[in-house]
Design goal:
Blueprint lengths: L2 H25 L7 H4 L1 E2 L9 E4 L7 H5 L4 E9 L5 E8 L7 H9 L3 E3 L1 E3 L2 E13 L3
Parallel strand pairs: 1-7
Antiparallel strand pairs: 2-5, 3-4, 3-7, 6-7
């Protein structure tokens, strides 16, 4: 077998093996948790709302304060079955330039909740949270 043909065969074999690996990773997740652990519920239909136990107010950045920006950041927040914030996504931004959106996310991650429940068991629930920035 010529050297070119041997290298071509090797490249082809690696490409096929790579394709099989991509297929396996895509089709066969490696986490041991079942779908119930990753399920995120919406409130209602037997799913209770989480209750705030500890709330942290967002801090102004010096630039945001100097620009006198006031208003609200709206976020979808996932409260895990342990009562911790596991995911935050901004749905209505107030300020990306001076860092107030980031400060709202930072504050949200510090909140603690009594988790929402479904059938009496704690579950992850997605809720909407408003963080207000107000100058005094």
């Amino acid at each position: 077998m010529s050297r070119f043909r041997a290298i071509s065969s090797l490249v082809f074999a690696l490409a096929v093996a790579g394709g099989i690996t991509v297929f396996a990773v895509d089709r066969l997740p490696m986490s041991s948790g079942g779908p119930a652990q990753s399920q995120v519920y919406e409130p209602g239909d037997g799913v209770t709302l989480p209750t705030v136990v500890h709330e942290v107010k967002p801090e102004y950045t010096p630039q945001g304060m100097q620009a006198k920006i006031q208003g609200s950041v709206w976020m979808h927040v996932v409260i895990g079955a342990t009562g911790d914030v596991t995911d935050v996504q901004i749905t209505r931004s107030l300020d990306q330039e001076f860092g107030l959106d980031d400060k709202a996310i930072e504050a949200a991650h510090q909140w603690k909740f009594k988790p929402g429940t479904k059938d009496g068991k704690p579950v992850a629930v997605r809720v909407t949270v408003e963080m207000r920035f107000t100058l005094k």
